[in-house]
Every structure is written in structure tokens, then in C-alpha cells.
Amino acid sequence: MNAGTTTSAVPESVGPLIERLVAFALHNRLLEPLDVEAARNALLDLFGLSEPAGAAGEAFDSEAELPDDPVAILEPLLDAAAASGLIPDDTTTYRDLFDARIMGLLMPRPSETVRLFRALAKEQGIQAATDWFYKLNIDSNYIRMDRIRKNGYWLQATEYGELEITVNLSKPEKDPKEIALLKTLPPAHYPKCLLCRENVGYAGRPDHPARQNLRVLPLELQGQPWFFQYSPYVYYNEHSIVFNGEHVPMRITPETFRRLLDFIERMPHYFIGSNADLPIVGGSILNHDHFQAGRHTFPMEKASVRDWVGHSVETGVAGGIVKWPMSVLRLRSDEREPLLRVADRVLQAWREYSDPQADIYAFTGETPHNTITPIARLKDGAYELDLVLRNNRASEEHPDGIFHPHRELHHIKKENIGLIEVMGLAVLPGRLKQELSAIADILTGAASYDQAAVADSNHPLAGHAGWIAELVREHGTSLAPEAAETLLRSAVGHKFRDVLRDAGVYKDDAPGLEAFARFLRTVGFEL
Ligand SMILES: [Zn+2]
């Protein structure tokens, strides 16, 4: 027995569940047939059992009965672990820590994963290799697909094309007991962050996820060790993270562009982009240099260029302003080096660029404000680089940022507008689901509407009070349920468009486009 004295007897169901899980792992090629005994024995040991259920391997031999998802087998195993005291508390946090530990016993070693990936890429091509690796990440429950599937998703037609709206319901809410526990934990120093390579195989803590089932692939970018992994949160198909082997801060430099192109040359079926390197306009992790990649066509990629124009020096490079609520310069070239030279010039110029007429200032004192969110892809055999111009200056009127969602939109979105949102996919907080449903009840008359009560700061819908009053004024309180839902989805979708407009440094109007052109002329574009 490896468990302490507080452990109660392990329920009898555990033996057959272990057999099922081993069969699942074998069927989905997490294990090879030669690995079966060792994996079974490791699971028996974890649960404090000295022998398997019945005749090992016979308890479960029909593949037809295997679930698509390991969760159906893991859930009763976690119940048993909780009942027998193997996990200290039957909370989502401890259950998540324990199921990663279980699945970690069924994984190939990190080096074995890399060998399999490389062999597949060589024999069947890079796409077959990423298909296999993505499925491994789902079958191992590192990507908790059962939770991802709960996310809300809809498309919103706008003058910029269809925007994608997601409501993030996959993050489990922590109960008060868990929150209280987190407050008692000492500050941790290992791994330095959620992106560090030291996460591979880490058992986790209540304040850090377990990663025994995480596998990463080494990737050399500009001669330096970087790594590729999938994101456990899957905001879009095959959502990947490409991270520096060292824990070094985010920095957008000419080298960044070269790394992005290195990546798409190796994985031409994926796009890749980087968050900007300044607060307010950057992502949530600024202290570890990383990119996000994946196999998904974002709304921004589908948006057209207003007018392609030539470059005065680099004749093989075309550029143009994308018809998009944010300020995007699209560069296109068949050749890598001329494209990179233009991108370098744009970055260097933008870092220093001020245009008082457009309210753009590169510095306040010594503090820099200008940066870029870059995205790279291969399209019809050509390199395409989208450079999204960003500025993180704040003012008295807009203390959270001038080019950041303004206050009247904060009830929908107040977080940073990072790479994913820049490209037209909104990741909205889970609280919205409940709130939108309560607002729908008002609009259908299912709940009574008391304008003063909603406006009270203690009311759960207080943040939406002004918006609700406007909706009621325009649409009344006797809508059919479907009509209320359609109305709210559309209203939220349009607010997301407005969020992106706020984040754009050049506005989508005649003075804004002229100011954008003014900048582009300074970097050699002929418009
Ligand atoms: Zn790190």
C-alpha cells in the first residue's frame, strides 16, 4: 500500500475500471501492447491494490464498449479515489490533479512521443503528425474536451464579415473552500510559470495544474530551442502554444518575425501569431516569450485588403490596409527576405511614431507605447504577415487605455484585447451565460423589470443596467424566447465589434484611413 493510514478500503469497482482504462489507452495508442502490464501495475499501485480484477485483460476485451472519451472511465475512478481517501478533498481541483496523475501513467515517455511524431511526419507528412499529436492530447485528457464542448459559440455578421463569439464555460468555478485554501498557500517558485518546459510531468498543486499528461515537441527557431504544445483550453481548432525554452519576457523584435516564418515553413497548415509585448495591449502572460498557433481560419484572415499597393524599395512586397475594425497592415510576398526587411522597417518606424492629429504618441517620458501584434501564414504559396498596430497609452478620459475597450463596453469585455481577439474571436467570460439568460427573461416578460432595482449596485445585473434599459425601451418586454435570444446574441456580437474598434489606433473613417496612409508612406508604401 502506498497510501496513508487514513485510507479506507478501495471500492471493488476500481479493478474493472483500471482494466477498462488500460484497454482505452491501448485502443487509442497511448500504449503499445508491450506496455500493458507495466501500465496496469502502475495503476494498481496508485490505488493501493496488489492484484488486478479477475483475470487481467479479460475483464474488458470488447473495444466496441469503449467510450470515445476517457472521462467516462475517469469519473468513477475519481469517485473511488475520493471515497477511499486517496484525494484529500472531493473538489474539482483535487480531482483534476488526480486524473492527470492517472493518465500520466498511461502516456508514452516524452522522448518516445517526439520519436513517434517525427516518424509520422517523415512517412505521412506534417499534417498526419499534428493530427496524431492533437488526438493524443485529447485522449490523454490533457485537453478536457468534455468541458470545452460546453462553451457557447455563435457567429455574428458585421460589416467586417462574420465575427466569432465564444462564452468560456469550460473553466470550472472554484468553491469558497478552494478559494480559502489558495489564500493559505506559500508563494511558489517552480515551475516559474505555466509555460515553462518544467511543467512536463509536474504533479501540480492546488494553485498549479498537474501536467503528467502534457507532452511537448522541441522546435528550433532561429537556432534557439523552442517548444510546441497544444493549449489545454482550445479556444479554436488545434490551438497551439509555441514557447521559448527559457523563461524570458515577451519581446517583439525583428527576430520575432523570423521565428514566425520559421514556424510556418515547418507547419504550413498552421497560422502563428504573437501577442504584443506591452501591458494593456498584450496577452495575459508577458513574462515568458511565446506564440499561439493553430489550424483555424480567423475572421481577420478572411477580411480583404482595401487596396494593394507596392513598396518603393522592396518591389516584390505588396502591402495594404485590411478592412478590419483594428489597424492591420497586411504584407504579402513570394520571398521571405524582402518581406522581413519591410516588416523590420514597419516595426522600427512604428516604435518611434507619433501623430498628434490621430492622438498617437509613441512615448510618455521614457515609457514606450507603440508595439505590434504580428500574425504569419502561408497562403497560396506566398508569405502573408499581418502587422496589427497597437498603442497602450492611457488618459484621464480612458484610464484603462485609449485603444482598449472603453468603459461603456466593460460589462461585456474589459480584459486585454490579445492576439485571439484581434483576429476576430471573442473569448467572453462565463458569467455572461447566466446574465444573458436573466436579461432574456426580462425581455420576454418571464421576469418582471424594475429599472431602479437593476441599477442598484448590489443587483447581479447592475453592470448591464444601462444596456437593459435601452433594450427594453427599443424592444419591450414581450418578445418570444427565440427572438430575445437572437436579439441578445446580435447585440453582444456588435458590442464585440465595438470593442475591436476601440482597440484600433486608426479609426475606420476618412480621417483615420488618411492618418494610417500617412504612416504607411513613411515606411515606403506608395499610397
Ligand atoms: Zn516560464
Tally of strands: 15
Structure class? alpha+beta
The average pLDDT is 94
Beta-strand content bin: 15-25%
Number of helices: 17
- In the sheet with the most strands, the strands line up as 3-4-5-7-6-13-14-10-9-8
Radius of gyration: 26 Å
Given the C-alpha coordinates, what overall shape results? globular
Question: Which small-molecule ligands are present, each listed once?
Answer: zinc ion
What is the terminal-to-terminal distance? 75 Å
Q: Unreliable runs, pLDDT <50, ≥5 residues? A: 1-5
What profile does the largest beta sheet have? 10 strands, antiparallel
Q: What is the helix content? A: 25-40%
Polypeptide structure, described:
There is one protein chain. With 527 residues, the chain is of the alpha+beta class. The protein contains 17 helices and 15 strands. The protein has helices at 14-27, 36-46, 71-83, 92-104, 110-124, 126-139, 145-148, 176-184, 254-266, 299-302, 336-352, 419-422, 431-444, 451-455, 465-475, 481-503, 510-522; strands at residues 152-158, 161-168, 217-221, 224-230, 240-244, 271-273, 290-294, 309-310, 318-321, 328-333, 363-364, 367-368, 370-379, 382-391, 425-429. Strands 3-4-5-7-6-13-14-10-9-8 form a ten-stranded antiparallel sheet. Strands 1-2-15 form a three-stranded mixed sheet. Strand 3 (217-221) and strand 4 (224-230) form a beta hairpin. The longest helix has 23 residues, at 481-503. The model is unreliable at 1-5 (pLDDT under 50).
